[in-house]
Amino acid sequence: MNVQTWTYILVGITFALYIGIAIWSRAGSTKEFYVAGGGVSPLANGMATAADWMSAASFISMAGIISFAGYDGSVYLMGWTGGYVLLALLLAPYLRKFGKFTVPDFIGDRYYSNTARIVAVICALLVSFTYVAGQMRGVGLVFSRFLEVDINTGVIIGMIIVLFYAVLGGMKGITYTQVAQYCVLIFAFMVPAIFISIQMTGNPIPQLGMGATLSDGSGTFLLDKLDGLSTELGFNEYTNGSKSPIDIFAITLALMVGTAGLPHVIVRFFTVKKVKDARKSAGWALLLIAILYTTAPAVAVFARTNLIKTVSNQPYSEMPEWFSTWEKTKLITFNDKNGDGKINYVSDPQANELIVDRDIMVLANPEIADLPAWVIALVAAGSLAAALSTAAGLLLVISSSISHDLIKKVINPNISEKGELWAARGAATVAVVVAGYFGIDPPGFVAAVVALAFGLAAASFFPAIVLGIFYKKMNKEGAIAGMVVGIVLMLFYMLKFKFGIFDGGKESVAALKEDWWFNISPEGFGTVAMLVNFVVAIIVMQFTPPPPKNVQEIVEDIRIPSGVVEAINH
Amino acid sequence: MSKKQEKASAYWKENLRYLFILLSIWFVVSYGAGILFKNTLDLIKIGGFKLGFWFAQQGSIYVFVILIFVYVRLMNKLDKKYGYDD
User: Fold this and answer.
1) Which residues contact A328 (CB under 8 A, 6 or more apart)?
2) A252 contacts in B (CB within 8 Å)?
3) What is the full DSSP assignment across B33-79?
4) For B8, which of A66, A221, A556 is closest by C-beta distance?
5) Yes or no, beta carbons of A279 and B79 under 8 Å apart
6) Is pLDDT at A333 greater than 70 in this prediction?
7) Engineering a disulfide at A277: which of A43, A46, A103, A272 sits with its beta carbon 3.0 to 4.6 angstroms away?
């Protein structure tokens, strides 16, 4: 059977599974819709969190980015896993004890202020929308390559599936489909990685294969070989980066803190029964995520070595079949500048003749390594699982921000349970359509803004939540001032140094690099904005009245794990 | 301060001590071994891995996972000691 038949079969089976689960686990109340009834087991919640977290970016793009960035790619590996340590130790147990439905719930109640609540809603919406657009794009990409449908049709099919189970099932439906999606995506990621690891090094464990010797009998270590190939072609040594250590430091911290502050991740810890379970499920989540995150750098090394060996200085006419299939999607482009019919793949942009989109490294990897058709199809099903699970989690945050935080808490507190449930479903539907639109017609800023999402979460939510738990005397004036200053500073820095708005547009961005504050890139600036948020909050607090007694009692109460009340809608 | 409050603040102090120790390790394996001292550690090679590079792309992640499970254990014990496990 060929790749396309296999893809139809595997994608068909997995989609049928997701829909079946959605029908079985329909949500009947707002509590089921927002937090799955609050009775999810720690392992199931860990799996759901892992699927929720690992998006199209983790599954499709990350190994590709590392493949081209080498050591510099470590910022994503450490940044997107280390955040879970912060989440488990500093946030999850306390937020679970607090026992509400959303992150703006916590901010609004802890800081006894609807202004704080609305600031939090705006941040949550901004972060989630930018994220979800990227997922829809990922769905479209996979459909267009593997099922050979139009990229827009692909996005629409993805929209219908997500709409079906997110709107019908709410958090309950999402949780159990995410459990299934985790299994699909991890299997799909590991199988080709194991195959290729055996092929290249004889070691079936990719994490070890990465540091092993090549199986061609030369006795050379794979990483040494890749360092050699890279420098030969004028690139940096793979195991050494080109970014400054301070920038690597800042980006890693911004990603870690941003991860811990992402509302769609935090909200997953509201779904377990006890504080104890919240801690444990954070551990499960990270363990399950780490399986993919420690394999990805190995895949990056295998793919990069394979790519260089296959194309470098080889005649264009002798390229394997995958080369031309990906050329059709314009994700590989070859331009024979010196007219010798050979592919000259080098670092120097003047002489380089080959451009490979980093997004295809994972998708094309099984083909480059010449693996069987079913493995290639499996990767397609896995990428869809990754994209759909994250999209669903984000849509839920968007819908609960609107139906719960805005309508129920601010606009119309008297709304009935049933009315709120319909409002949540309506908001989810609108959100899917908007996300689909961004997926079909992505504004140029989407990719840039996804990086901004982490900076924003780091600069806004993280300090407000941490201070809310660990600093009893923190008041609403301090927290609001901190959040506003943090976000505005972050936005200013992005607009100035990422978009060049104040200096004549995109073209001037490269020249502005000289002016970066403390040599920190816009991607890493979330770290600075976060620190400023902390400082501003603490200074403002000194000059304003302390929080009321009952709020201080709430803080004392969330620090103690016993006596968890069920999340109630009040 | 009432007895109940005294107990709660003793519990909180022990909790903070655990957090401090665990987060120090968190910092050392990632920002220390993987970034600040990466070049020095790279002089040591284990198999095909330069040690600093290994910490940045593999080792730190393993330690993160272990840290959370150690935290879970420590806190479960602490909850029991103070009678906060229900």
Assistant:
1) none
2) 30-31, 35
3) IIIITHHHHTTSEETTEEHHHHIIIIIHHHHHHHHHHHHHHHHHHHH
4) A556
5) no
6) yes
7) A272
Using a CB-CB cut-off of 8 Å, the residues of chain A touching B36 are 245, 249
Query: Residue A373 has which token pair?
Result: 């058709």
Selected for mutation to probe chain B from A67, A71, A549 (highest B CB count within 10 Å) is: A71
pLDDT number for residue A444: 55
Alpha-carbon distance B58 to B41, whole Å?
14
Q: CB distance A249–B15 less than 8 Å?
A: no
Residue A37 Ramachandran class (φ > 0 left, ψ -120 to 50 alpha, else beta): left
What SS3 class is residue A343?
coil
Tokens encoding A224: 């040494």
Q: What is the pTM of this model?
A: 0.91
Q: Do B64 and A274 touch (CB under 8 A)?
A: no
Low-confidence ranges of chain B (pLDDT < 70): 1
Cβ–Cβ below 8 Å for A89 and B62: no
Helix (H), strand (E) at residue A247: helix A245-260
Task: Give the distance from residue A515's alpha carbon to the nearest chain B alpha carbon, in angstroms.
Answer: 23
Q: What is the mean pLDDT of residues A519-523?
A: 87
Phi-psi category of residue A320: left, alpha or beta, with phi > 0 → left and psi -120 to 50 → alpha: beta
**C-alpha separations of A22 from A188, A277, A447, B8, B71 in Å:** 22, 24, 31, 43, 35
Please state, for a pLDDT cut of 70, what percent of chain A lies above it: 97
Q: Which two tokens stand for residue A190?
A: 């590991």
| Residue in the block written with tokens 């079946």 | A20
Among candidates A221, A224, A290 on the partner chain, residue whose Cβ is nearest the Cβ of B65: A290
Q: Which residue has the higher pLDDT, A511 or A429?
A: A429
Q: What average pLDDT is seen over chain A?
A: 86
C-alpha A230 chain-centroid distance: 29
Contact A93 B75 (CB under 8 A): yes
Provide the shortest C-alpha distance from residue B60 to chain A (in Å). Answer: 7
Single-letter amino acid code for the residue at A444: G
**Inter-chain touch B50–A223, beta carbons under 8 Å:** yes
ipTM above 0.85, yes or no: yes
Structure tokens at A114: 């609807």
